[in-house]
Design a protein that fits this description.
The complex is a heterodimer of chains A (358) and B (553). By secondary structure, chain A is mostly helical. Chain A has a single domain (47-315), classed as ABC transporter involved in vitamin B12 uptake, BtuC. Chain A is 73% helix and 3% strand. Chain A has 13 helices and 4 strands. The radius of gyration of chain A is 22 Å and the shape is globular. Chain B has 553 residues and is mainly alpha-helical. Chain B has 2 domains: 2-207, no CATH class; 236-460, no CATH class. Chain B has helices spanning 2-17, 20-25, 36-55, 60-87, 99-106, 111-134, 137-155, 157-163, 170-176, 185-207, 217-266, 275-289, 301-320, 328-347, 352-355, 377-399, 402-412, 414-419, 424-450, 460-473, 478-494, 502-516, 525-546, and strands at 28-30, 34-35, 368-369, 372-373. In chain B, a hairpin with a 3-residue loop joins strand 1 (28-30) and strand 2. The radius of gyration of chain B is 26 Å and the shape is globular. Chain B starts with a helix and ends in a 7-residue tail after the last helix. The chains are: A mainly alpha (358), B mainly alpha (553). Chains A and B meet through helix 1, helix 6, helix 11 and helix 13 of A and helix 14, helix 20 and helix 22 of B.
Chain lengths: 358, 553
């Protein structure tokens, strides 16, 4: 991407682009700083509220991180964005609703909350796993050697298909997830009240991520996965069944997304056929933020994005006197996405992504 | 063949549960005999038998056997679904598992009879499919065309009835259709047979030169052009306001498609935020011409359009600058991000005083041309056609220009293009800018068509639809864009009552297109050659070691 120094016009035009990008950076930084100072001077929020924001952000970030794992693992192996991953996330949670509703109606849900939660997670993970594997089989595997644009387009198609398939199957309305009595109210932790759902979500997300990380780092299959993402051909020569590993990657990523779907339903208490789109994009942002292809990076990116998104509207925008800053929550997330892609496509922890990929 | 059958069985059950079968059941293909929903299921059985027969190796008997099993298995699956429904309450989970659907699936018979019946019907159709696979294409092709024509007559019956509305055509109408119902048996049969015959005869006629009608190439072209123009001018008059409205929408998508085609098809820059420019064009016209509270200038439409085009062009360049260095999938996501940012900003309360928030800009007057108000869709249709023609001409001239070739070069390989002295910055920015300008024209017409603009009209869905239509039409091909928008936008608009399933079909069409015909319906020559060269190579590689299969049936 370096310009020939002998050709003056090229250099000048590049400078103009650079100047534009610098201006873009400066404007964003100025908005953030100005807004933060303004908000803090206004003092509209108490310390407790800030803690609430951060905890909520962490819980949401945990969900993003779980979804992001699927993006990052698939990208690590196939170098493609599984655009349909958000729908994989949706499919599990949406299907598990039909288990949760009868459980709640029969009272089992509140008699054995932990057991039911586990059951729901297992159901959601299984469905998402199935959908992810199906998508891989139908939409991606036949195109593994096609030009790069082709699988991306099928991914978009698959994503659409899944959304409207589930809309057709389960209906287009919002479905209210039953609530767990056990998770209502707050727990006191270090003198701060934390909503129980958020604590549960945070702990479960952390546990799942830990388990996954251990799986990838410690087991033989995990080693094979890392080998395939390092070099497919060499891995095949070492006797690794690359196709199987790819399916397995989709399966694991899908299961993680399904579990994340249940956690999402705990926090937001409803499911919908379109619920996968925005979390999907945000989880992708998280994956890029942490360095795509990098598993700890995805976790870190998810938590970071969750916190920024939760704290951001109040911290950056309220001080600017913008009405209803919470509406612009997604703008903050998308701006982060765009800025990461433009300025640091290798992400925070990324090192693998060479310039040619970005 | 079991596996093929099970896959198709899953497809049949899915189509039933997703509601498509029931929705199509509302249309008769042959009044009182077969509905479109039934035709769909029967088609699945047929296809299953066909595929199973194609997959099996061996003589005719074993192929037919495979076809039977291949057809009977999905029949069994459908029967299983019927049985399952008699055991558990499917409706509590699947909203479309309605009594009507199961009445249709079971044919109103008791569960076990229906199950056996489904297996039998499936097996028979599987046999038919298998014999289809055994016959040469010369025979099967016209038969398929005939079946397709018959089904289309049923699906588009409203449109056909509408066109046959005039008094003089009433006898034909009454002969083709049952009053207030679907096609009559004789109507469907004649349409199918005639279409099949035409399809069968066409290649024969093609092969033989017809000296009587030999005109010079140029005159032929002019003649066809005149016919095309006459058809375009007559269409809305024949079809009435509804058809005109559909055509306007097709025209708008063509405009956007031409724009995105410059970016994706020629320059290879996958832009998923394209709807933003459509929105910018619409909002510019809205703000400049509106007589409502958000109007700022009360200009006429004709003065506002050039401004809208320029504003969209500038917006395209401005959003293009930051993403200059990004390629491939990352570019797609980054532009998607931009598109969403624009939509969310417009929707937000922060900009409500200027852009009207979620209510948008209202009271946009219709354009007035020489004292004559272009009010209804029939008038706007001509505006759209003219705009599309202008844009298509510009796109066509751009394609073979120096700039167009530079775009193709960067699509093929950016680094090589840069090494050849192409200025990536300006070439890419021109792609973004011109593409955006085209979309701006579309947005301007959209604003006057609807009479108001609000953020809800500018969802990501539109970007995806535009992308889908260029891909289905054939990337980088200008006629492809028109065909794509006619197929993907026009057909669903005509089949409004199945609107729910439109995006389902889109998604499936995108995937299927990429798997089966990645170059699109009407591909640009380069793409076709490229993809086919690849295929031929592959086929050569596959066929050569195996030695040619024994005989062609």
């Amino acid at each position: 991407m370096t310009a020939g120094t002998s050709q003056r016009p090229v250099v000048r035009r590049l400078n103009f682009v650079d100047a534009f990008l610098w201006a873009f950076r400066l404007v964003v930084v100025a908005v953030v700083v100005w807004g933060t100072v303004g908000t803090l001077r206004l003092g509209r929020y108490t310390g407790e509220q800030w803690v609430d924001f951060v905890v909520f952000g962490l819980a949401q970030g945990g969900i993003y991180a779980l979804i992001a794992l699927g993006y990052t693992m698939v990208y690590g192996i196939l170098r493609m964005i599984n655009f349909a991953h958000g729908e994989v996330f949706m499919s599990g949670a949406y299907t598990a609703y039909f288990v949760a509703a009868p459980l709640a109606a029969s009272g089992f849900l509140n008699r054995h909350p932990i057991l039911s939660l586990l059951l729901l997670v297992v159901v959601a993970a299984a469905v998402s796993l199935g959908v992810a594997v199906l998508v891989e089989r139908v939409a991606y595997r036949p195109l593994r050697r096609a030009p790069r644009l082709v699988p991306l387009i099928t991914a978009i198609g698959a994503s659409f298909f899944l959304q409207y398939a589930f809309r057709g199957l389960y209906g287009s309305g919002f479905k209210a997830y039953p609530e767990f009595e056990l998770f209502k109210g707050e727990w006191q932790f270090l003198g701060v009240g934390i909503l129980r759902t958020q604590a549960v979500v945070l702990v479960s997300a952390a546990a799942l991520m830990f388990a996954l990380y251990q799986f990838v780092m410690r087991t033989k299959v995990g080693k094979a996965m890392r080998a395939v993402s390092e070099d497919k051909d060499a891995a095949a020569l070492m006797g690794i069944n690359v196709d199987r590993i790819i399916v397995l990657t989709f399966a694991i990523g899908g299961a993680a997304a399904g579990a994340a779907g249940i956690l999402y339903a705990l926090v937001f208490k409803q499911v919908h056929f379109f619920m996968g789109f925005v979390p999907g994009i945000k989880a992708f942002t998280a994956a890029v933020l942490g360095g795509i292809g990098n598993i700890p990076g995805a976790m870190l990116g998810g938590l970071f994005l969750g916190v920024v998104e939760s704290v951001g509207p109040a911290l950056f925008l309220d001080g600017l006197g913008i009405p209803a800053p919470y509406q612009l929550k997604d703008v903050i997330a998308f701006t982060m996405l765009v800025m990461v892609l433009i300025f640091r496509p290798q992400g925070i922890l990324g090192e693998r992504l060479a310039a040619k990929r970005a | 063949m079991w596996r093929v059958g099970l896959v198709f069985g899953a497809v049949a059950c899915f189509l039933s549960l997703v509601g498509l079968v029931e929705a199509l059941h509302a249309r008769w293909v042959v009044d009182g005999w077969v509905s479109a929903g039934q035709a769909l299921l029967l088609g699945v059985f047929l296809a299953s038998g066909w595929v199973a027969a194609r997959r099996s190796r061996g003589g005719l008997a074993s192929r037919l056997g495979a076809g039977f099993v291949g057809g009977a298995t999905p029949g069994f699956c459908v029967g299983f679904l019927v049985w399952l429904r008699s055991q558990v309450d499917l409706r509590s989970m699947f909203i479309n598992a309605s009594p009507v659907l199961f009445q249709l699936l079971s044919g109103g018979r008791p569960v076990h009879v229906a199950w056996i019946g489904a297996v039998g019907v499936g097996g028979l159709l599987g046999l038919v499919g298998a014999s289809g696979a055994a016959l040469p294409t010369r025979v099967v092709g016209p038969v398929l065309v005939g079946l397709g024509a018959g089904v289309s007559l049923g699906l588009f019956q409203d449109l056909v009835v509408l066109i046959l509305q005039p008094e003089g055509l009433a006898p034909i109408r009454d002969w083709l259709f049952v009053a207030g119902g679907g096609p009559t048996a004789q109507g469907a049969a004649v349409v199918s047979v005639v279409s099949a015959a035409v399809a069968a005869v066409r290649p024969v006629l093609r092969a033989r030169p017809t000296p009587v009608l030999r005109l010079p190439r140029r005159a032929q072209r002019v003649l066809w052009g005149l016919v095309g123009v006459a058809l375009l001018a007559a269409l809305p008059l024949a079809g009435g306001p509804f058809v005109a409205q559909v055509l306007v929408i097709v025209g708008l998508y063509t405009l956007m498609g031409q724009g995105l085609n410059l970016e994706v098809g020629l320059a290879g820059l996958l832009d998923l935020g394209f709807v933003a420019f459509f929105a910018i064009g619409a909002y510019t016209v809205g703000l400049l011409t509106s007589v409502g509270e958000h109007g700022i200038a009360h200009w006429s439409f004709w003065a506002a359009v050039p401004v809208a085009v320029v504003v969209s062009l500038i917006a395209g360049v401005i959003l293009g600058i930051p993403v200059l260095g990004i390629r491939g999938d990352y570019l797609a996501i980054a532009t998607l991000g931009f598109g969403e940012i624009v939509r969310l900003l417009v929707l937000s309360d922060a900009l409500r005083p200027w852009l009207g928030g979620s209510q948008g800009v209202l009271a946009i007057p219709k354009p007035v041309l020489a004292g004559f108000e272009l009010s209804g869709p029939q008038h706007l249709y001509y505006l759209t056609v003219v705009a599309s023609a202008v844009v298509a001409y510009v796109a066509w001239r751009l394609q073979d220009s120096r700039l167009g070739r530079a775009w193709i070069a960067i699509r093929e390989d950016e680094d090589v293009a840069e090494a050849l002295g192409i200025n990536l910055v300006s070439v890419k920015l021109l792609a973004y800018g011109l593409g955006a300008a085209f979309a701006g024209v579309g947005g301007a017409i959209f604003a006057v068509m609807v009479g108001s603009v609000f953020p809800h009209s500018f969802q990501l869905l539109i970007s995806i639809q535009v992308l889908a239509l260029i891909i289905v039409g054939g990337m980088g091909s200008i006629p492809g864009v028109i065909v794509g928008s006619a197929v993907l936008i026009g057909l669903p608009e005509l089949l409004r009552e199945f609107g729910e399933f439109r995006f389902l079909v889109y998604g499936a069409a995108l995937v299927a297109m990429m798997l089966l015909r990645p170059e699109g319906l009407l591909p640009a020559a380069v793409q076709r050659r490229e993809l086919h060269a690849l295929e031929e190579e592959k086929e050569a590689a596959v066929v050569a070691p195996e030695a040619a299969p024994e005989g062609g049936c």
